[in-house]
Design brief:
Elements lengths: L13 E2 L2 E2 L3 H8 L4 H15 L7 H15 L6 H12 L15 H16 L13 H14 L3 H14 L3 H17 L4 H11 L6 H14 L8 H12 L22 H13 L7 H12 L3 H12 L4 H17 L5 H9 L6 H12 L9 H10 L5 E4 L2 E5 L1 H8 L6 H7 L9 H4 L11 H10 L6 H15 L5 H10 L5 H15 L7 H10 L8 H15 L2 H12 L4 H14 L7 H7 L5 H15 L2 H14 L4 H8 L7 H10 L15 H17 L6
Antiparallel strand pairs: 1-2, 3-4
Helix pairs in contact: 1-2, 3-4, 3-5, 4-5, 4-6, 6-8, 7-8, 8-9, 8-10, 9-10, 10-11, 10-13, 11-14, 13-15, 14-15, 14-16, 15-17, 17-19, 18-19, 22-23, 22-24, 23-25, 24-25, 25-27, 26-27, 27-28, 27-29, 28-29, 29-31, 30-31, 31-32, 33-35, 34-35
Length: 697
């Protein structure tokens, strides 16, 4: 083994962290007799040589040696190496050819060479299908389906192996590999679909039938039986027939030192999450099935509702987590599902209850069907009102945050109690956004806490949440305390503190008239050439306009900010000018110029401001329409404008948005903490814009 390894100039090659002269040591360690050495080496390969899926020249140089390791029966834990090779060689490149001058060309060329190199040696995986080592039998099917040059042969072998394989999860791997072949090699898809359909029928075991349905949903959703939901729920009930093991948390768990590698920690986390569950692999199959069902939201809701009624806490925690992905990506009628998620809050299995609270916290107003359950959970566990983090500020507990985000006034007394703590939760102010007038009784406590804060280098961290809360409540009586912070802010993060204070004064409006001298003085000191950002100057001008209403005092500063190179400053100035309305008409020429800005959000803000100051939609609307279609994240801001603007073509896009089942800001596999809130806000604005009387322009 490793013949020629020292003939490679590893120091001349690179990986994620520099020269690759440490790679031979990793390769040798993969063949070590010590399991810790093997795990550390594999972890290092993923961390450096195949960092986040990248392929370097050192990765290419490793491939022959990795194939040697896989072929050597004396090497232990070869399944992990097979998975590494599958990842290295299995990246699907776009069909479009890259320009050699493109900076991505070298990366794409490396991926292509890696695929060719692993494919050339993929015969080594054939002998692993019936290996004694279960790990090899689990890894080999997907490796062959992904990398072997003869997919027809692989499909034949997979079908044969599945008939002889005693291990249930290896049989699932064979079915998954069949789905991969159908996706990668369309000519074989009909044969794969026929095979999978056969596996969905009795006498196949219920787990295998579920695996086959999951793969059909992935590679041929149109081939799914019409009664797929009742069929899957029946399979789940069959799988539940086995007695459910008690939660492992019912017994003391002996303490062990944590694994030293990322792979080890992931393995431990998986083990902790699955131990005590009847069929932990069901979650993987159902995730695949949900992914394949895509926009069939009603079917997916029905499946999740059934899972949430399972006596197996493991299936219910999987359903809660999958519900989070469904709710964050697709629009639908979720009342029943959300209510069932709320019921999990009372479950004695802490992981399930915590997962339910976290999911409900992402839903904002959609969590209303679970509000009573949230209130009960909050009342039953005062110790969980605040979460404390090592090395970070405290935050609201998940259930309290979810109740407040749902707009439920029962959160207010709890938030009041947290304001009495030595250090209130850093996200408390943000929770008040969704409570409206119900949170008004908190204003005196927020004001008091803000007045007590030391004006030192921790000012932003401690004052920020309080200022945000006072802004949300428009508590103008707190203007003296806000001005104290604005005047006394230290140099450290001074602009951040000032911008938070200015937002509060802007929200207070004319009721904060005592702030006018301070705002005028600040406006003089933050102008062009002062060293302060254009954004701070624009926000100061915006605050002064909101409080005093003197356009002559603020227009020169806002017009100057529009010409700055800082896009943040230009956007802040455009927003402030929009608030001026017709009083800002002198800025119209500069705003028209920004309609051609390179940064799309600058164009949107300028177009909205131009319409507000001139009332002429002729120049603004084409920019907004283009942004609506090309940059979906701008839609909420544009829809807000359309609640006041009457233009040709708006009704079409508003109705299209309301009929779309996918959230406008959804990104597969990922969404932010406010994405559902923003999308639901967009839908409300679209409905509001359509219900107003709109004469045609």
């Amino acid at each position: 083994m490793f013949g020629g390894i020292h003939e490679v100039d590893w120091a001349a090659l690179g990986h994620a962290y520099g020269p690759a002269d440490d790679v031979p040591q990793m390769l040798y360690a993969l063949a070590s007799a010590d399991p810790d050495d093997r795990e550390t080496a594999l972890d290092s390969m993923y961390g450096a040589v195949h960092h986040q899926g990248d392929v370097y020249d050192s990765t290419l140089a490793c491939i022959p040696f990795l194939l040697e390791l896989v072929a050597n029966p004396a090497v232990q834990d070869r399944g992990g190496i097979v998975e590494l090779l599958t990842s290295i060689g299995g990246i699907d490149l776009d069909d479009d050819e890259l320009d050699p001058e493109d900076e991505e060309f070298e990366y794409a060329a490396n991926y292509a060479m890696a695929a060719s190199a692993v494919t050339a040696g993929a015969d080594v995986f054939l002998a692993l299908l019936d290996a004694e080592d279960r790990g090899l039998r689990l890894a080999a099917p997907l490796a062959l389906a992904t990398l072997h040059s003869d997919p027809g042969l692989v499909l034949t072998l997979l079908r044969e192996r599945l008939g002889a394989e005693p291990d249930e999860e290896v049989r699932f791997a064979c079915a998954e590999a069949g789905g991969r072949i159908a996706l990668r090699h369309g000519r074989l898809a009909p044969e794969v679909v026929e095979w999978l359909l056969g596996l969905t029928r009795v006498p196949s075991a219920p787990g295998l039938r579920l695996a086959a349905l999951a793969q059909l949903a992935r590679c041929a959703p149109d081939a799914l039986p019409a009664d797929v939901v009742p069929g899957v729920t029946a399979l789940l009930r069959e799988l539940r027939a086995e007695p459910v093991t008690a939660s492992p948390l019912a017994e003391p768990v002996p303490e062990r030192p944590p694994a030293p590698t990322l792979l080890g920690r992931l393995r431990e986390a998986h083990d902790a999450d699955t131990v005590g569950r009847g069929t932990p692999w069901t979650a993987d199959l159902l995730r695949t099935l949900h992914s394949g069902l895509g926009d069939r939201v009603d079917d997916r809701i029905a499946l999740l509702v059934d899972q949430l009624c399972s006596p197996d806490w493991g299936q219910r925690i999987d359903a809660v987590r999958m519900s989070s992905g469904l709710l964050g990506t697709w629009r639908g009628a979720y009342g029943e599902l959300v209510g069932l998620i709320g019921e999990q809050l009372a479950d004695p299995e802490k992981r399930l209850a915590d997962a339910a609270a976290d999911t409900l916290g992402e839903l904002f107003c959609l969590a209303a069907p679970a509000a009573d359950a949230l209130a009960d959970r909050v009342a039953a566990d005062p110790e969980a009102w605040v979460r404390h983090w090592q090395g970070g500020p405290p935050s609201l507990g998940a259930a309290v945050s979810a109740l407040a985000r749902a707009g439920d006034r029962r959160a207010v007394p709890v938030l009041a109690r947290t304001l009495d703590l030595p250090e209130p939760p850093h996200d408390l102010g943000h929770a008040l956004d969704h409570l409206g007038a119900a949170a008004a009784p908190l204003a005196p406590a927020l004001r008091r806490r803000l007045g007590e804060i030391d004006l030192d280098e921790r000012l932003f961290d401690r004052a920020g949440p309080l200022l945000y809360g006072l802004t949300a409540l428009r508590a103008a009586e707190a203007a003296p305390e806000v001005l104290r912070v604005l005047r006394g802010a230290p140099d450290y993060r001074r602009e951040w503190v000032a911008e938070s204070a200015l937002r509060a004064l802007t929200a207070f409006g004319p009721a904060a008239a005592d702030a006018i001298p301070d705002l005028r003085a600040l406006l003089r000191s933050v102008g062009v050439g002062s060293g302060f950002s254009a954004s701070l100057a624009a926000r100061t001008a915006g605050a002064l306009w909101a409080v005093e209403g003197d356009a002559g005092a603020v227009l020169p500063v806002l017009c100057a900010a529009l010409s700055e190179a800082d896009s943040g400053g230009r956007r802040s100035a455009a927003t402030a000018l929009g608030a001026l309305g017709p009083a800002g008409e002198k800025a119209a020429p500069a705003l028209r110029e920004l309609l051609g800005a390179a940064e799309p959000w600058t164009r949107v803000d300028a177009a909205i401001a131009l319409w507000r100051v001139t009332g002429d939609s002729g120049r603004a609307w084409p920019v907004l329409l283009t942004s609506w279609e090309q940059l979906p994240t701008t839609r909420a801001a544009i829809a807000q404008c359309l609640t006041e603007m009457s233009v040709e073509g708006a009704e079409r896009i508003l109705r299209e948005e309301l009929h779309s089942v996918r959230r406008h800001n959804a990104i597969d596999g990922c969404y932010g903490s406010h994405d559902i809130f923003t999308d639901e806000k967009l839908l409300a604005l679209c409905r509001r814009a359509l219900t107003r009387e709109r004469p045609r322009a």
